[in-house]
Write a structure and sequence with these properties.
alpha/beta; Amidase signature (AS) enzymes; globular; 486 residues; binds glutamine; 13% strand; eleven-stranded mixed beta sheet; 11 strands
Length: 486
């Protein structure tokens, strides 16, 4: 059932919030041993939240829009009084004294916290394998990764362990796992959603967004979490439109731009390519006009990102010094020795790699050659998009070059792992909203993701096109069941 249907059933009293929570808790019990999507399940809190909703309904009080909807939260979003670990030894015992703005908004809208989900350590990765607390598996085939870094949230939604989840997307961490797990994932326009209480990775790129089973549900969650926040200085001061209003509008007359550079990638699987091109054809049959556009620097995104993101990360992660909060070594000597040992023991190797790259790129002798150069290329990439949007309303690409890869297959080679974000990173560099939604399956039964990218603050048209495609394609009706966890 969609969020709108559940809202109706709860209102009519055909289902209670408590029943919904219990259903999800038993599903977690049934499958999470295999998936490891959750780092912590907050059963007691969920039952308490649900009771409040059921009591309010019994008393005849009006119910807020997400009343009783069980939601899972990526474990890099601060939840007051509930551990927020970023899947790192560094924050293994960190209990935030405050609530992030996005989660606060969810609870105020009646949503129920089910638990915190697994991620790559500090959201650095594309497979959820760098978590200090064990990897997450893909529900479609447990020998495959769920994608990353928000792999726990994507897997939890795909496996029916929750109705929706939040993730964060710095270079693709919502869209790529959504694509690998066959769910919908949205990265909003930079600044539309508050980052306050999101543990910072790369502040100029990070954005929070939803995972759901449908585009309409994504619109519902975005409606609640979007909006300006005085506690986040990068938050945009804009009035939030109604995202559900435009969903029903036809795509007739809209120009859909296929980014040329994305389709002649060496690493692009032919099955992915064919599925995505078939999706474009379907949009054309619905009345959209297909145009080819060029973003000549699109493929430079990855090199640009892997200078800018680690640079910002190295600055953001300097706060973990073993003093204020976070892990502190047992073997403290001098202040310097204590800091060094705490960081050596607290961070995993991917995080250390990023800190080293970032510190190098920002160091006095190299800042012009690397960091400043990367910033210039970032501007060029944004200009390419601006040009493309004079010819098209929405851009279309695959979300990832392949379907979910095998556990361990990229772990020894960081660059091959980085390449899986080739198609998602440019939208982060340009601050654009982008969505991934299922558009088919490969021969082994794994979902393929279609990415749609819109101009700044054009979420309504993005969701409209995605919804119209989803309705016409009806991808999940013919889903292969063979390997999906029962
Ligand atoms: N996979 C990318 C990285 O490791 C993106 C991660 C993200 O979006 N958080 O940096």
């Amino acid at each position: 059932m969609s969020i709108a249907e559940l809202r109706e059933q709860l209102k009519l009293g055909n289902i209670s919030a408590r029943e919904l929570v219990d259903q999800k808790l038993s599903r977690i019990k049934q499958v999470d041993g295999k998936l490891n999507a959750f780092l912590e399940v907050t059963s007691e809190r969920a039952r308490k939240d649900a009771k409040r909703i059921d009591d309010a309904r019994a008393a005849g009080d009006p119910l807020p829009p997400l009343a009783g909807i069980p939601i899972a939260i990526k474990d890099n979003l601060c939840t007051k009084g509930i551990k927020t670990t970023c899947s790192s030894r560094m924050l293994e015992h960190f209990v935030p004294p405050y609530e992030s703005t996005v989660t606060e908004k969810l609870w105020q809208s009646g949503a129920v916290l089910l638990g915190k989900t697994n991620l790559d350590e500090f959201a650095m990765g594309s497979s959820t394998e760098t978590s200090a607390f064990g990897a997450t598996s893909n529900p479609w085939n447990t020998t495959r990764v769920p994608g990353g870094s928000s792999g726990g949230s994507a897997a939890a939604v795909a496996a029916g362990e929750c109705i929706a989840a939040l993730g964060s997307d710095t270079g693709g961490s919502i869209r790529q796992p959504a694509s690998f797990c066959g769910v919908v994932g949205l990265k909003p326009t930079y600044g539309l959603v508050s980052r306050w209480g999101l543990v910072a990775f790369a502040s100029s790129l990070d954005q929070v967004g939803p995972f759901t089973n449908s585009v309409a549900d994504t619109a519902e969650i975005l409606q609640v979490i979007a909006g300006s926040d005085p506690r986040d200085s990068t938050s945009l001061k804009v009035t939030v439109p109604s995202f559900t209003d435009s969903l029903g509008k036809s795509v007739a007359g809209l120009r859909i731009g296929l980014i040329k550079e994305c389709f002649d990638q060496k690493g692009l699987s032919s099955e992915v390519k064919n599925s995505v091109l078939a999706a474009a054809d379907l949009l054309e049959s619905l009345g959209a006009e297909l145009v080819e556009v060029s973003c000549p620097r699109f493929n430079d995104g990855i090199a640009t990102y892997y200078v800018i993101a680690p640079s910002e990360a190295s600055a953001n992660l300097a706060r973990y010094d073993g003093v204020k909060y976070g892990y502190r070594t047992q073997q403290s000597g001098s202040l310097e020795a204590m800091t060094t040992k705490s960081r050596t023991e607290g961070f995993g190797s991917e995080v250390k790699r990023r800190i080293l790259i970032g510190t190098y790129a920002l160091s006095a002798g190299y800042v012009d050659a690397y960091y400043k150069k990367a910033q210039k290329v970032r501007t060029l990439i944004r200009q390419d998009f601006e040009n493309a949007f004079t010819k098209a309303d929405i851009l279309l690409t695959p979300t990832a070059p392949t379907t979910a890869f095998k556990v361990g297959s990229h772990s020894e080679d960081p660059v091959s792992m980085y390449l899986s974000d080739l198609l998602t990173i440019p939208a982060n560099l340009a601050g654009l909203p982008a969505i991934s939604l299922p558009c088919g399956f490969d021969q082994s039964g794994l979902p393929v993701g279609l990415q749609l990218i819109a101009n700044v603050l054009k979420e309504s048209s993005l969701l409209q096109v995605a919804h119209q495609y989803e309705k016409a394609a009806d991808v999940m009706t013919n889903k292969p069941k063979s390997q999906f966890i029962p």
